[in-house]
Amino acid sequence: MLDAKLLRSNLDTVAAKLKTRGFMLDTQAIQSLEAQRKDFQVAAQTLQAERNAKSKGIGKAKASGEDIAPLLAEVASLGDKLKEAEEASQDVQAKIENIYAGIPNLPHASTPIGGGEEDNVEVRKWGTPGDFDFEPKDHVELAEAKGWFDNEAAVKIASARFSVLKGPMAKLQRALTQFMLDMHSDAGFEEVYVPFIVNQESLRGTGQLPKFEADLYKISKNDEHDTNDRDLYLIPTGEVPVTNIYRDDIIDVNDLPIKMTSHTPCFRSEAGSYGRDTKGLIRQHQFEKVEMVQLSKPEDSAQALEDLTLQAESILQKLGLPYRVMALCTGDIGFSASKTNDLEVWLPGQQAYREISSISLFEDFQARRLKTRYRIGQDKPQLVHTLNGSGLAVGRTLVAVLENYQQADGSIVVPDALQPYLGGVTKL
RNA sequence: GGUGACGUGGCCGAGAGGCUGAAGGCGCUCCCCUGCUAAGGGAGUAUUGGCUUUAAACCCAAUCGAGAGUUCGAAUCUCUCCGUCACCGCCA
Fold first, then answer.
1. Cα torsion at A106, A108, A109, A114 (round to 10°)?
2. Which whole-number Å values give the CA distances from A181 to A258, A262, A271, A323, in the listed order?
3. Is the CB of A54 under 7 A from strand B?
4. In Å, how far are A157, A166, A170 from A151, measured between CA atoms?
5. Residue of A208, A298, A219 whose CA lies nearest to A253
């Protein structure tokens, strides 16, 4: 959520910045609603003050034994008027809230301007796509030939876009997960274990709700009496539970930056992606991810984004997987993001770079919703800046290892960094 | 799941319709006193919004787990929900 004060005072500047990311701000609607809000709020508060004063008078009169009947008569109509004013005020505020909740973050000054994916900017490239003296296969072919990948079983158990991994492939996924967690721990990230089911407040905090309900799996409680808003959701990313650890908290400045890492499954409905990446592990309803989350001081956050990017890159480098870093343009960054770097790994099976990590700076956009603040000494609390990034998407890393380390005979060489996690095995 | 107790500031803890944004204590900050240490004295110490402003103070409103209700007036009474604790049941 953007700062309401900023929206009031610099509406046109905000609108211009949002336009670069393809969002048209209805400035007229906001202006007129804000004007109404002011009127209604002042009116309601004036009535409240009046009521408070008179009620206090009644209390005193009663205490000193005076007749309070005339005073009561005086206040008689106040209640209704107050109720009306309060409702009008709340009404407008709800409308404003609604509009504000749907406004995306302002792009960072360093985010390239552009309309869509094609305008993203390559920042750097690492490694060289391997030279195969045979036709490289894609991961599905490789894994199926070994009996490591059972799509039919997954469909039988659940539905399309789920997988059953077997034997060495399942172990390789576990090895990758542990490898990543160890790397991040060594770099000073605290490992955390979190709930994979979250409430609505958490999803609002990180910005998935109210706008992106369709992408989420909602869990109904199976209780016909339960008519309130206690619905729970499967997490679409570890970002949600991990960032929400500090919701409503005020952090001592000496405890910043806070750096956390967590391994979680992620659940996405992938509504609207029919027909894309239908084969294999690239796009699943359930996948594993190791996430990094960082809370930082505002003045450190831009650097923190670069640091997180390098941290994610270090995983790919240790694994020897060629990749490139893309700075997403204004038209392609996510709703809550101010700036995003994507890591794209080379997949020989597709002869293409594919997204394997997304690292984003949210500035105070999430923190405002989360009410995550920090305090210097006795000063007033200020909003922190939040960041997160995949480090990495484990399923896609698994794909990348299979495809980049395949041999002509269909076997897979185990990257050096992973061998300790597989009992020293060098080839699968 | 059942029964009972309970959610008050950074923490502990009083309050049980009005004089309570909230006694008292601890902690913390500043000042005084003090050879050192220990002790003592004084002042301050929540958040959000409105208004004003260069900024702040002042002023006003809201907040005693959350929401709704009763009342001229709610931390206090009623209802719903969430959570904590104890005992019982079940369970990896």
1. -80
2. 16, 7, 30, 20
3. yes
4. 10, 11, 14
5. A298
**Nearest-nucleotide field for A53 (CA, C1'):** B73
- Joined together, the tokens standing for residue A374 give 């920090």
Condensed to tens digits (0 to 9), the pLDDT of residues A61-87 reads 887 777 777 788 878 778 788 888 888
Catalytic residue from among A268, A354, A368, A373: A268
Name the region of A269 (left: φ>0; alpha: ψ -120 to 50; beta: rest): alpha
Residue A358 a catalytic site member? yes
CB atoms within 10 A of CB A123: 14
CB distance A394 to A402 below 8 Å: no
**Predicted confidence (pLDDT) at residue A257 exceeds the cutoff of 50:** yes
Interatomic CA distance for residues A139 and A348, integer angstroms: 9
Q: DSSP state, A189? A: P
pLDDT tens string A272-316 = 777 778 888 999 999 999 999 999 999 999 999 999 999 999 999
Strands A258-267 and A190-191, by their bridges, are parallel
Distances (CA, A) of A277 to A4, A274, A396: 40, 8, 12
> Which run of H or E residues covers position A397?
helix A394-404
Quote the ipTM score: 0.85
Secondary structure element (H or E) that encloses residue A124, with its range: strand A121-126
Q: Which two tokens stand for residue A299?
A: 């003045």
Q: Assess whether the previous peptide bond of A210 is cis (omega < 30° from 0).
A: yes
For helices A394-404 and A167-186, what crossing angle results, to 10°?
Answer: 110
Rounded, the Å distance between the CA of A64 and C1' of B7 is 36
Distance of CA A100 to the CA centre of its chain: 18
What is the rounded CA–CA span in Å between residue A351 and residue A425? 28
Q: Which residue is nearest to nucleotide B60 (CA to C1')?
A: A49
Element (H, E) at A94: helix A78-101
- Whole-angstrom Cα distance, residue A166 to residue A158? 17
Protein footprint on strand B: which nucleotides are under 7 Å from a CB?
18-19, 29, 45, 47-51, 60-62, 72-73, 80-82
pTM: 0.92
**What letter does residue A105 receive in the DSSP assignment?**
P
CA closest to B46 C1', residue: A380
A253 CA to B57 C1', in Å? 26
